[in-house]
Design brief:
Oligomer: single chain
Strand content: 5-15%
Structural class: alpha+beta
Order of helices and strands: HEEEEHH
Helix content: 40-55%
Number of strands: 4
Shape: flat
Strand order of the largest sheet: 1-2-3-4
Distance between the termini: 105 Å
Length: about 170
């Protein structure tokens, strides 16, 4: 018999812990053609354990108190749960549609033919098409003139500054 190395010892210890932590796993009969319920693969952190009956994957690591196995989160389980929730919601919505229309805010009387927010059309004088355009008030004209005067003065001041800068540099 050859001497046990540290990796062999830890592998055997992990296997022993798996049998003990598995409870009655050792008492159960092994599936045909397989070595047992769990398939173990060494990884740098410890051992990766696959439950061949349920498909659950766990990582087993050695800590100060001994070996501990934790199930690896399974994305498939979360996806299956979400698919089930969405299917139930679809069925519920189909049931609501089949029950009949439940349109909120529906009224039985007809809507008015004119739009109250629409502005009145320009008035036409006997056979002529005349469009009335409202003119700006004196106050509006004064505001525009004041703006234009300020803009013109700023433009002239800017031109004078540029001319002084150019004549001083040449």
């Amino acid at each position: 018999m050859r001497p046990a190395t540290s990796s062999t010892t830890s592998w055997l210890a992990a296997a022993a812990v798996m049998v003990v932590s598995g409870g009655l796993v050792a008492a159960q009969s092994a599936p045909d053609g397989e070595n047992g319920r769990y398939s173990m693969t060494p990884i740098p952190e410890g051992v990766l354990r696959l439950d061949t009956r349920t498909g659950t994957v766990s990582t087993c690591t050695k800590n100060g108190a001994g070996w501990a196995c934790y199930a690896v989160p399974d994305e498939r389980t979360a996806l299956d749960a979400e698919i089930g929730r969405l299917q139930a919601e679809v069925e519920r919505l189909k049931g609501q549609l089949a029950a009949g229309p439940t349109v909120s805010g529906k009224i039985d009387e007809a809507l008015p033919k004119s739009d109250q927010l629409k502005k009145a059309e320009p008035k036409a004088v006997e056979g002529e098409r005349k469009i009335e355009i409202p003119l700006p008030s004196d106050q509006d004209v004064d505001r525009v003139m004041s703006f234009l005067e300020k803009a013109w003065r700023r433009l002239i001041d800017m031109a004078n500054r540029v001319q002084k800068d150019v004549s001083g540099k040449i």
